[in-house]
């Protein structure tokens, strides 16, 4: 449908929403009552459990599903491997519903197989940030106490000296090391597996996210939450398509299998939900990128006839910086680009609008705790409100609140609170953090946002002391604690500052002890030996006076940032 010139995009979206969510419509809404008695708006037609969602992919049969280098997987091959692994984990290794299975590797077909096999038998997949150091990987494993770890050889090398004492069994997908070889798990001739009796409110997934503490937290979600979130992605896509019929018609005319360049890690909610699980359900192709390189990404976009790319803002920036990338002879069949909705450099948005006008570029806003997208827009919606993070989902309630949690008037900036069926149950094994984040069913995001009268939400700032660098969340407290291990430091303040490529960069301001000589190079080397590379500050500045604090002793980071912002590029 087209939008009459005298009708606002907001009014058009409201009309589309009414049609899509009405009784008998594809996205019909209903009230869902959870096991604890809470009631939320939900999609009537969404799957109830993760195995149901996964099994929908079996209908795609011989169609190509995953490409990794020269290795090509059809849906049939994928499910043959899933069934074999599921059978042997359940029948031979005694893995039960509710047991946790950790997954630690780069994006590759085996990652998807491990995830689907675990979920199929009712086990709880625990994807782990594969970029972490040994200590970080082990912390994740210790926190969730999985029965099994399925990993690649790089991750195994990091943990093999310490994992033995945990009792966790290990399978290495690209080697014969570990307790059970991957080749034996995927071999043909298995006995099948018994489908577990799962309920919508059973635990389906634990994803890790970084918060304002030094230790990553495991986000526990139910089958209902995950399945509703996946269905919600479809809803947002349907609204975008109906508001941009010309762009959609141009895409359909190419008669290509929808193909996604998968560069976002699968252990991220956006990589898992919006790419892997959505593609599995709808029969889309995934082209896995082993290691991000914009030049190689362009080669894959051309070679594999990629139609969609959604990635971290830094990835999008690097792609559009390639001369002539917007031209079909460079970007091929790419329908547009998508990226996250918070902490975006305005220049990136303007360049995407300028180079991909009339296509299905888009933006979204969500968190691991909300199982991904809460708001989103693409095509004409994005072009109408390019500075926003998109239009709100009908199954997510949003409150813009003051510091006391009280709702603020429309158009006034405040903290974004979320409530809805897709939200997490809790932080795994961390009651204190759960209670700090969730109040009367509302989740405090720590983001500062504005909600307008058309239903678009704009993220303008962040309360949480967390830095988003190319999609990786970094706790400032963790970097500060690492710096302060240096015997020559008295104080350290770590915060974010804008960066045209990575969205945000890590900046540290430090104060040395008397008669101590400090250098940026020395301190960067010190941190790099103790933290993952993406957490190492871009800039370390030395201050000769104590860091400013309020009467309560709290560090005044806003003042520190203002003092040094002219020195940071």
State the share of residues found in helices, binned by percent: 25-40%
Structural class: alpha/beta
Number of strands: 28
What is the gyration radius calculated from CA atoms? 24 Å
Class of the domain at 50-198, according to the CATH hierarchy? Alpha Beta
Second-tier CATH architecture of the domain at 50-198: 3-Layer(aba) Sandwich
Detail the poorly predicted runs. Answer: none
Q: State the end-to-end CA separation.
A: 45 Å
Mean model confidence by pLDDT = 91
Explain how this protein is built:
The chain is of the alpha/beta class. Among the domains are: 50-198, Rossmann fold (3-Layer(aba) Sandwich), CATH 3.40.50; 466-567, GMP Synthetase, Chain A, domain 3 (2-Layer Sandwich), CATH 3.30.300.30. It has a five-stranded mixed β-sheet. Strands 18, 19, 21, 22 and 23 form a five-stranded antiparallel β-sheet that branches. The longest helix is centred in the middle third of the chain and has 21 residues, at 223-243. The radius of gyration is 24 Å and the shape is globular. The model has no long low-confidence stretch (mean pLDDT 91).
List the helices and strands and how they pair.
Blueprint: H1 9-21, E1 29-33, E2 39-43, H2 50-55, E3 64-68, E4 71-74, H3 75-92, E5 100-104, H4 109-120, E6 124-127, H5 134-144, E7 148-151, H6 153-159, E8 169-172, H7 182-186, E9 203-209, E10 217-222, H8 223-243, H9 245-253, E11 259-262, H10 269-282, E12 285-288, H11 294-303, E13 309-310, H12 313-320, H13 328-331, E14 337-340, H14 346-355, E15 362-367, E16 372-378, H15 380-384, E17 391-392, E18 396-401, E19 414-420, E20 426-427, H16 431-437, E21 438-439, E22 442-451, E23 457-462, E24 466-469, E25 472-475, H17 476-483, E26 489-499, E27 503-512, H18 520-528, E28 539-543, H19 557-564
Parallel strand pairs: 3-12, 5-6, 5-7, 7-8, 11-12, 13-14, 14-15, 27-28
Antiparallel strand pairs: 1-2, 3-4, 9-10, 10-20, 15-16, 16-17, 18-19, 19-22, 21-22, 22-23, 24-25, 26-27
